[in-house]
Amino acid sequence: MKFLNYLSAFIIAVWLAPTMCTERIDPDKIGVRRSIEGGVAEEDFHVGYHVSLPFVHSWYQLDATHHYLEFNEDDGTALDVRTKENNIIFIDLSVIYRIKAGEGWKIVSEGFADSYGDKVKSTVVGLLREQLANMSNLDVQVPAKRKAAAEQARPILNKALEQYHIEATHVVLRGIKFREQYEEKLQNKQYFVVQGRLDEALRKESLAKQDTETLEKGIGKEIALKEEEWNKKIEELKSQYELKIALVEAEGVEYARKKRAEADAAFAEREAEGNLAEAMAEALGERLKAEALSTKAGRTYSAIEAVRRFELGDVQLNSMDATFLHQFGSMSAWRRFFLAE
Questions:
Q1: Distance of CA 72 to the CA centre of its chain
Q2: Cα separation values, 274 from 13, 121, 154, 255, 261, Å
Q3: How does pLDDT run across 262-298, given as a tens digit for each residue?
Q4: Rounded alpha-carbon distances, angstroms, from residue 193 to 178, 183, 186
């Protein structure tokens, strides 16, 4: 029974030990450990679990992210600054700062763990009022000069914040505003400045229009002269080329007539030669045909052709006349008739 009690106590102790003997530090925190005997440990503890003995160690967790100190006209917290001309301006700005790396433990050791934010604010207000007071009424109206003044103030501000182990990463000056009476005067002044610039622009526009009209007239005159000159050249060239074209056309007509006459003569000559050759061929053919037909074979051919074309009409025979058969009914009679034998 005692063994089970001891075992249970051991299991409970092992289960609770990680929770009871460690401290969890989140990624956005800086852990600072204080012990009863040694005081504040001279190091910053970052994300993870760290040894923490019950009743021996106590912990502070500081914000490791960037802090934003805002001065804004909308909520009445704008930073009031007096310029060189002794005019009060209200500035909207942001100061972005953080705890310096490795110096979180110093804030706890020096007792600023709960008040470093207020100390930073009072330091920023005092120093920026002093630095931005070097700007004139005209300087604060120029964005580039405002930005330059903010950048110049940051190193001085960091020097003052070293005592609290803080560094400013950015000083952003967003806008400025004068008191209502002076703001109205500035707007009127700017209106007159703008009106003056507008009048000057209108004057320059009028001069530019005059110059443009003069230039247009000069250009128009030059264009007219050039057009007249080029028209003259075009007419001269046109006359020259028309003459050349007429000469070329005449040469073409003469050449065409000559070649056409030559072609006609050649055609007539070739045609006469062809007609002569055709007549000679026909005469030769007739002669050869006559010679061929005068031969025995020719007479036979003529007789065959005559037989083919021979048509015997209606013949009435007298059966009492025996001479007809003797004269026309025998082969010898037909031979004599067709072959002339």
A1: 44
A2: 141, 130, 120, 28, 20
A3: 888 888 888 888 888 787 877 777 777 666 666 666 6
A4: 18, 15, 10
Using 70 as the pLDDT threshold, list the residues of the chain that sit under it: 1-20, 179-193, 289-299, 301-303, 305-341
Q: pLDDT per residue over 87-97, tens digit each?
A: 788 888 889 99
Query: Do the strands 88-99 and 166-178 form a parallel or antiparallel pair, or are they unpaired?
Result: antiparallel
CB 103 within 8 A of CB 51: no
* Distance in angstroms (rounded) separating the CA atoms of residues 235 and 226: 14
Within a 10 A sphere around the Cβ of 330, how many other Cβ atoms? 11
What single DSSP character describes residue 113? T
For every residue of 79-108, DSSP letters joined together read: EEEE-TTS-EEEEEEEEEEEEPTT-HHHHH
Coil vs helix vs strand at 74: coil
For the record, the structure tokens of 33 come out as: 């450990």
- How far is the C-alpha of 182 from the C-alpha of 140, rounded, in Å? 14
Distance, CA of 307 to CA of 301 (rounded, Å): 10
Contact 31, 60 (CB under 8 A): yes
For residue 106, the Cα-to-chain-centroid distance in whole angstroms is: 58
**133 vs 139: CA distance, rounded Å:** 11
Q: State whether residue 266 is helix, strand or coil.
A: helix
Residue identified by tokens 């009871």 is 20
pLDDT at 326: 60
How many angstroms separate the Cα of 263 from the Cα of each of 127, 251, 255, 260, 276?
117, 18, 12, 5, 20
Q: Strand order in 29-35's β-sheet?
A: 39-40, 29-35, 57-63
Structure tokens given for 153:
């103030």
- As a whole number of angstroms, the distance between CA 108 and CA 33 comes to 9
